[in-house]
Amino acid sequence: MIFDKFIDDSAIIACITGSGANSATSVLRISGFKSITDFSSCFSRSVADFKPRYCELVNIIDINNEILDNAIVSYFPAPNSYTGENVLEISIHGNRLNVERIIDFFIAKKLCRLAAPGEFSYRALKNGKLSLSQIEGLDLLLNAKSPLALAQGNSLLKGELHDLYLKLRESFLRLKAALELSLDFFEDVDAEQADAEFNLALDEFTFLEQKLFNKTIFNSKNLLTPSIVVFGAPNAGKSSFFNRLLAYDRSIVSHVPGTTRDYVSEFIYYNGVEYRFVDTAGIRSSDDFIEQEGIAFSQKLLRDSFFSILIVNPLEVSDSSFMQDLVGRADQVIYSHKDILGEADPNPLKVEDFLSYNFRDQNCAFQILLNKISDFYREQSEAAGILVERQSRIIQDIDAQFSDFRNLMDLEHDRVIWANALSQISHLLEELIGIVALDDVLDTVFGNFCIGK
Predict the structure, then answer these.
(1) Does one domain contain both 363 and 248?
(2) Which among 159, 158, 156, 153 is positioned nearest to 141, based on CA atoms?
(3) Edge-to-edge strands, sheet with 349-350
(4) Which of 66, 109, 185, 283 could form an S-S bond across to 190 if both were Cys, CB 3.0 to 4.6 Å?
């Protein structure tokens, strides 16, 4: 559980920059201390002179009045900080030993403890500085492997999509109030006006709900971490192609069919997107249990792939219906023998074409293939909708409940029944905007965060 890690409200510290390597500077963040005067003995100048949100050049000094480092310190008093708590941000020299030494110094003075991954952002959520959808946007941004994920993560973090969710909930509350008003005046002279207000609210909610639902129809999951799966029959040349693509021997190559029994993957960065290329076990009928497991997993990788590349050895195609099925599942077919061309493609690419690495040559086989994948990614991105699975699922649930409500209106004239049916949507809307946040949702989100965020 996420709350097992965030065990108390004591002050926390972490390095919020760098990836474990030495750097020119690193930034430490301390959050949750009671008063800036807690740090009176830590700096060469009086902390009482620190101006909020100003940079102060000071020395960090230990108990023996020795200088640990020269630092730039910024003080952000609550509630005007990232976490909504009192925050110090301390820029120091970025040697990793120096960073660890200064973190240990503050912890040893019992001024703070080491933060858990995501704890700063959890406190921002708890203190109302960020919404749940913004936290999910931050998760998307921190772990993005594509421009699409970066863009939507930024959008969520800025609150743009969250604003739409709030508008949807406000529209729902107007609809609910209009329905309750029509109940009160159902047999009154004002019934016509109450009905008009109800129908207006119904049309408004329908428009906003459908607008958001349309953003969930497209399956965008594979756009977050696009995988390019290389597949085919055993001994087709998949591993040879995979190694040529990477320019080093990543997969084992053997003339024995079934050598690759598990998948092998590597990342290739191209045109701003990080693609995960996967070499899979050969797909065929087999009585070997271990090979069967590898083939089953290859089939799953293929189903979940963003783009698939089928390697065909025309000399070893014995089952035409089996091969036809494989070709039908491929986005690109590549042949492993230069002298035998497949009839399925008038201009086939061949494994032998991938011997040359000349990315300036637009006719290079690597350029042809990667450009095709890149173009396909761009086309899919333009149609992409909401990437956060939790948000997408809830919106689809809202649409299903609202469709049931509209059908009920046609079948049932008792507006009390309408009101009961409509109220079921309320909980989903609260979950969407984060008023209701389940522990397992927080566990999933914060489980992806790094220390310092």
Answers:
(1) yes
(2) 153
(3) 264-270, 273-279, 227-231, 307-312, 332-335, 349-350
(4) 185
> For residue 248, what are its two tokens?
């080093």
Q: How many CB atoms lie within 10 A of CB 162?
A: 23
Asked if the model's pLDDT at residue 420 lies above 80, the reply is yes
Kindly report the CATH number assigned to the domain that includes residue 415: 1.20.120.430
C-beta separation of 16 from 121 below 8 A? no
Element (H, E) at 195: helix 191-213
In a domain, 446, yes or no: no
Asked if 128 contacts 84 with a C-beta cutoff of 8 angstroms, the reply is yes
Torsion of CA 377, 383, 386, 390, to 10 degrees: -70
Task: Decide if 59 contacts 44 (C-beta within 8 A).
Answer: yes
262 assigned to some structural domain:
yes
Q: Write out pLDDT tens, residues 311-350.
A: 877 776 555 666 666 777 788 888 776 554 444 444 556 6
The pLDDT confidence band at residue 191, using thresholds 50, 70 and 90, is low
Q: Taking Cα atoms as reference points, which of 336, 136, 145, 324 lies closest to residue 227?
A: 145
Q: Which two structure tokens, joined as six digits, stand for 351?
A: 């494994």
Per-residue buried b or exposed e for 125-155, using 16+ beta carbons within 10 Å of the residue's own CB = beeebbbbbbbbbbbbbbebbbebbebbbeb
Residue 449 has pLDDT above 80, yes or no: no
C-alpha 376, offset from chain centre: 20
pLDDT at 342: 46
Which runs of consecutive H residues, i.e. helices, occur in 20-110?
A: 96-108
Domain span at residue 402 reads 137-217+388-433
Task: Give the three-class secondary structure for 165.
Answer: helix
What pLDDT was estimated at residue 71? 93
Inform me whether the pLDDT recorded for 30 exceeds 50: yes
Dig out the tokens for 268 from the structure.
């290739």
Burial class (CB in 10 A: 0-12, 13-18, 19+), 61: middle
Report whether pLDDT(36) > 90: yes
Q: Write down how long the chain is.
A: 453
Residue % of the chain over a pLDDT of 90: 25
Let me know whether 304 and 417 are in one domain.
no
| Domain identity same for 234 and 198 | no
